[in-house]
Amino acid sequence: MTQITEIDDPRIVKGLAHPLRIHILRILQERVASPSEIAAGSEASLGTVSYHVRYLERVGLIELTSTKARRGAVEHYYRAVGRLRITDRAWAQLPAAVREGLLGSTLDQIGRVVTQAATSGGFTRNDTHVGRHALKLDDQGFHELSQVLQDAADAAHRIEHESGQRLRAGNHTATEFSSALICMLFDTSTSVGPDPAADPLSAAADADR
Question: I need a surface site. Which of 51, 88, 101, 143 has the fewest CB within 10 A?
Answer without folding.
Answer: 88
